[in-house]
From TrEMBL:
InterPro entries: NADH_DH_suC (IPR010218), NADH_quin_OxRdtase_su_C/D-like (IPR037232), NADH_UbQ_OxRdtase_30kDa_su (IPR001268). It comes from the Eukaryota. Keywords: Mitochondrion, Transport. The keyword Nucleotide-binding does not apply. It holds the Pfam family Complex1_30kDa. Residues 32-152 form the NADH:ubiquinone oxidoreductase 30kDa subunit domain. The gene is nad9. Belongs to the complex I 30 kDa subunit family. This is NADH dehydrogenase subunit 9. SUPFAM superfamilies: Nqo5-like. GO terms for molecular function: NADH dehydrogenase (ubiquinone) activity; oxidoreductase activity, acting on NAD(P)H. The lineage of its organism: Eukaryota, Sar, Stramenopiles, Ochrophyta, Bacillariophyta.
Length: 184
């Protein structure tokens, strides 16, 4: 199935369910959907005979803090049967969650935990949503653009105590006079 036929089929899909936008970037097809319809679109793309996107290759997130819906999620799907890739995008904000698709695609569980940990986007009905990249006592989400660049506590492994310890950060700098004519 070539990409033009896929676009025609997606346009027929847009008559059945409301899609925000359909784009073509090179050989890849991009669909923008509302967040409340995301799970239904993913289910349709996986099980419909003309699509058969059985593999979820990646879920990525982007933070746009000035937008009303500040987080963009992109689901990248692959159809082995038709050798076609598709990207499904949706937008959300920190107060509303996204319906989890970890029961639909088994690889989604890890990606959704990673996005929860890094961005703070909550996935409803996730089987085991937890932090996987930061410590359990960590406050905030590192990939949000409103996260401070330096904190007050540093975590490091102490060899004598054989455990991870928290220490206060001291940001001190010695007073130096600069002689601009000297190379040192």
């Amino acid at each position: 199935m070539n990409s033009q036929l896929m676009i025609k089929n997606i346009q027929n899909l847009s008559k059945m369910c409301p899609l925000e936008k359909i784009q073509l970037h090179g050989p890849e097809l991009v669909i923008v959907v509302k967040s409340k319809l995301l799970y239904d679109i993913l289910t349709f793309c996986k099980h419909h005979i003309l699509y058969q996107f059985n593999i979820l290759t990646c879920i990525t997130g982007v933070d746009y803090p000035n937008n009303k819906y500040r987080f963009k999620l992109a689901y990248e799907l692959l159809s082995i049967r038709y050798n076609i890739r598709i990207r499904i995008k949706t937008f959300t904000h920190e107060l509303s969650g996204i319906l989890s698709c970890d029961q639909l695609y088994f690889t989604a569980g890890w990606y959704e935990c990673e996005i929860w940990d890094m961005y703070g986007i909550f996935f409803k009905n996730h089987s085991n949503l937890k932090r996987i990249l930061t410590d359990y006592g960590f406050e905030g989400h590192p990939l949000r653009k409103d996260f401070p660049l330096s904190g007050f506590v540093e975590m490091k492994y102490n060899e004598t105590e054989k455990r991870v310890i928290n220490e206060s950060i001291e940001l001190c700098q010695e007073y130096r006079t600069f002689k601009f004519l000297s190379p040192w």
